[in-house]
Amino acid sequence: MNEMGASVDAVGIVLAAGRGSRMRSRKPKPLHRAAGKELIRYPIELLLACGVERIVVVISPENRDAIRGLIGDSVQYAVQPAPNGTGDALACGLAALSGSPSVVVALSGDTPLVRPDSVRKLIDEHRGNAGRCMTILSATDVFAGDLGRIQRSSAKEPVGAGPVTGIVEAADLPDATPGPAEVNTGVYCFGGLWLAETIGSIRPAASGEFYLTALAAIAADSGDDVAALPIALADEAMGVNDRKQLAAAETVLRDRINLHWMESGVTIIDTATTYIDADVKIGCDTVLLPNTMLSGETVIGEDCEVGPNATVRDTVIGDRCRIIASVLEESGVESDVDIGPYSHLRPGSLIETGVHLGNYVEVKNSRIGADTAAGHFSYLGDADIGVGVNIGAGTITCNYDGVDKHRTVIGDGAFIGSDTMLVAPVTVGDGAATGAGAVVIRDVPEARRAVGVPARLLPPPEKGQG
Ligand code: UD1
Ligand code: CA
Q: What separation in Å is there between the alpha carbon of 241 and the centre of ligand 1?
C-alpha cells in the first residue's frame, strides 16, 4: 500500500464510450464541462488522487480522437467498437490489460461529483475483505431518479444493510416502487481475477445491452462475496446524463469550490454570484465581490480585490491588485495594479507592477511598463510601453492599416498628450512628449516634443529650459 491507502497494483477503468444521446449534443459528453473542467478529467484526477496510477479509459470510435487529444498519453485507451452497454465497455477495458491486477476500480466518465475520500474508503473496504469479488459504492437518502437501485435480501433491515442480491436499473423497476432507496453511484472495486473470469457471463438485458450491474446478481447467485458500501453523500451519486443534470452538477461543484476557497482564507461577499472554475487558484485575504467569474487557468495573488462584475479568464494576477468591473483574458498582471471600471485586457497583455488602467481602457498584445498610467478611454494594441509613462485621455494606437498590424513603442517616462493618435509603426523615445490631439506619423526622438496634425517636432528645448 502507498500512503494514499491504495495498492499500486490497482488499475482504474473509466467508462466513457456511451452515446451520451440524452445530452442532445454534437459534442461528445465526456468533453462537456462542469466548473470549467471536462467531465472526463474528473474520474481520471480522482483515481490519481486515490493513488491509482494505472488507468484505462474506454472510448468510442466517435469520441476517441477528441478524448485522446484532451487527455494525451498519461493513460491507456481501449476502444469499445459499439455502445453495447457498461458491461461490454468494462470487458473492453479489461481486454486492454496485460495480466490481472489484484484490484480493478471501475467508474463512469459522467459522475464528476464523486469524492476521492469515498473512493479511498471503498478501496480500503474492498481490500480489507480477503476473497471479496465486488464492492459497490452506494448512497442512501438521495433522490434516486434515474439511478440503479441496490437490492438486498432482507426488506426488514434498514436501507443499506443486509446481503446484496443485485442491482436493478430504474427503467426496469416495477412502477411506483415505494420507500427509500439505496442507489448505485457507478463506482466499483473488483477482484481482478474474479472479474476476468466472470465478465463473460453477463447476459444481455431486455434492452439488448450488457449491463455491468448484472455482475452483482451473478456474484450473489454463485455465493461469491459482493457488498455495497453506502457511504457516498447524496450529491456524489448524481450522474450527468442530460443538460439539466449538467447544470445541477455545476451548482454542486460551484458550492464546493467556493467553500474550499473560503476555508483557505478568501472572502466571498456573495457566493450565489461568484463563479470559480475548478483549476483556478486564489491567494489568502483576497476579496471577491459579487458577479465575479474566474475561469480557466486563472491565478490570483494575495490581498487582491476582484469585482464587482469582473470576468477573469486564463490570467495570472499578482498581489494587492484591484480589478473592478472589467474583463481580463489570457494576460499577466503583476502586483499593485488597479484596473477599471470598464477596462478590457485582451490576450497577450502584460501589465507590470504599479500600473493604473482606469475607465474604458482596452489593451491587446501589449506590455505596459511599471507605474505607467492610462486613466481614461484608450486603445493600446500591439504596443510596448515603457516605465512611468503617462497616457493621456483618448490616446489610440492606430495599429491596423487595413492590411497589416504594426507596433507602437513608447519609451520610459514619455508623456502622451490627450487624444494622441499614434499611427504605427511608430516610436516615441524616452522622455519624449506629444501634444493634445497630435497625429503622430513619424518617430519622436528621445526628449523631443511633437504637436499638431500631422505631428511635427518642436525645436529641442534650450539648455536650462524644460
Ligand atoms: C449507470 C448504471 C446505474 C448507475 C449509474 C450511476 C448500468 C447499466 N447502470 O447508469 O446503475 O446508477 O450509472 O451514474 O451500468 N458507457 C460505455 N459504453 C456503453 C454504455 C455506457 O462506455 O456501451 C459509459 C458511458 O459513457 C458512461 C457510463 O458508461 O460514462 C455509464 O453509462 P450510462 O449510459 O450513463 O449509464 P446510466 O444510465 O447512467
Ligand atoms: Ca450516466
A: 9
